[in-house]
Amino acid sequence: MHEQDPFKQLSSEGVLSRTFQIYLGHFEAMMGIAFVTMAPVTVFQLILERLLVTYGRGDEVVMITLAVLYPLAMLALTLVAHSLAEGATAFAVAESFLGRKVRFGPSLEYALSRFGALLETNVSIVVRIIGGLLLFIVPGFVWAVAYSIAIPVLVTEGVKPRQALQRTWSLAKGHKWKIFGILLALGALHAALLGGLSLTTGAVLSVRSSFGLLVQQMAIGLVSVAVTPLYLIAATLLYYDARMGSERFGIQELARAFGGTAARERPRPEHELVATPLVRGFWRAVLAPQKVVDCGDYAARMSWRSATYILGEHAVHFLIEPMSAGPDLVYVPDEESWRQSAPGWAQVHRSDIVACLRAVKWNRGLEWREGRGHRVWHSPAGETRVVDGSLEASTSGRLLEGQGLFHPGQRMTPAEAREAWNDALRKYLSQAGGQIQIDLNQVAPGSVLKDVALPLLQRNPRVDLDLGNAPSSEVGSALPSAQHPARPRAPAPPGATVPGAAVPASPAAPRPAAPRPAAPRPDEQVTADPVFEQDDLVEFARAVRESTLERLRAVPQGSENWRVSPGAMSFAELAQHLVETDDWMQAKMNDPDLEPILGQAGTVTVTDREQYLALVEALVRTGQRRERLLVSLDSDALQTRIHDARFGGEVSRWWIIVRGNLDHEIHHRGQIATYLRVLEDGEARYSK
Length: 688
Prior knowledge:
Elements: H1 12-25, H2 27-56, H3 60-97, H4 104-113, H5 115-135, H6 138-146, H7 150-157, H8 161-172, H9 176-204, H10 210-246, H11 251-257, H12 275-287, E1 298-302, E2 306-311, E3 314-321, E4 328-333, H13 335-341, H14 350-359, E5 366-371, E6 376-380, H15 395-402, H16 414-430, E7 434-438, H17 448-459, E8 463-466, E9 502-504, H18 532-553, E10 562-563, H19 571-590, H20 609-632, H21 635-639, E11 641-644, E12 649-652, H22 653-681, E13 686-687
Parallel strand pairs: 4-5, 7-8
Antiparallel strand pairs: 1-2, 2-3, 3-4, 3-6, 7-9, 10-13, 11-12
């Protein structure tokens, strides 16, 4: 249930109303939490009471022993059950407010992951309340009211038990009467239900008989279990309400606690009780197999070396080992490795995340290999981290990543997509320079590193290749990183050594760049570097296009057809002309004899702003196609001579791109900027 405005202060009636809304809206999940945690308490209570009645008669020692053990055992079991129920419910309410699917399985798994802290908090609360009741009576009730929101504090803010109690006392100031009133109302409802049930069962059954009494006790126990979620949901809502009253608490803060852009990993307890692994093991062995996978509102993407699961504004990444033949390997951490590397919001969702990613029909053969020592890394959803010096850190690599070659629905087959990457990698590594270390002991047999990259690096005279033991690498460096002169360096994601890792050592002296005359003549042959020249051209073309688009979008509404003079092109005509020249350049690469085109005034008239913006968006798309073309042209293609009458005969394709397209756009961009200034100054105007 995702409400339009869940974060606003409510009256007591509003808190009660929303409590019932959440309870009924997620009845199955809330009852699942209550039943799994609290029903065993009811059953255990009935068993102890039957033992007390059966074996306590006539034996004073047994009677006293059972009378002493009974409350202690019930207190211990109730503390355990309530700790799990409160932690799971607080998690479930947060999921509800964030608009996510609420299920009791992941909620209970989260509670189990923090069982030590939850139990420690509740034990501290009980000790304080009992002490207050024994000494002063009134403070015990006050503490019971104030500390009723302690578990939501612990769950949401990810603090330690002692800090949670201190924080709870501070938040409850000024809200104790409201908390007391709501708990009292729920208690009255609970008492009324129990009273009505007792009267009903008493009228139908003979409660003096053992069977009648047992049925009545079981019915009362089930009603108590069914009412328990109301208390726990209300406690979480009262915590939210207290924070909204004194702090700026809203959906963004809740998202950061449970998977937002600034998500804090919930710390694992410094110590765990011996019972924790036993309870967790029971849960996984008996109940976890019944869990249904629900991918929910998530997104996924796949790059050359990672598979990414995105939830809201947060992402978790799995490392991929590209293979030269057969399926590529996706490294999936086992449960222990997952707990060590996954962010807090994903701790209890390992199986669902992996299942959802595997369910996507990727345009790629994959083998999901689970094992100890594998790790994931996490980041904000929009952030891309690549290994410094890798193909992905280059402009060409980023463009390839942006095409989503491995996503469903691609025109390329999986084999073609793989070959496109391997071809780009071959070109990239053939131009590598510097010192590279590779630990052969960690090179996966049949990997791209082993069969494609290593042979290229060994044949490259500019590379100083060290095949000894490389130092620990970063996650994501399953392929070698090459030192390239004067290229931007991107940060690598945090992580540990992975199979096939390679680490750049101290860079060698950079090789000289290919000569680039400041103003080459048309008959000069321009030398192009297949990696660096492409990157430079793409970056320059992108900068030119962004500047042009910025000016076209700044044209005032109503001035789209304005022209500075009768023979000049209007803004709309300039946009259309630039689209046509992009298309012309694409065609010219395949048809060297294609004649140039000229822009003409009086050819385009738009009738509204939408038509004009459609022209601007068309220019966005042709710019993207231009970038893809530049990436596809290697050194030989850029140097190929073709005919163009404007430049006195034969020129290189590089010249057509730079002089015939990019410089041409810069010329018209200057016109657009000048026309905007004329419009702004209110000088001579002419319109069709």
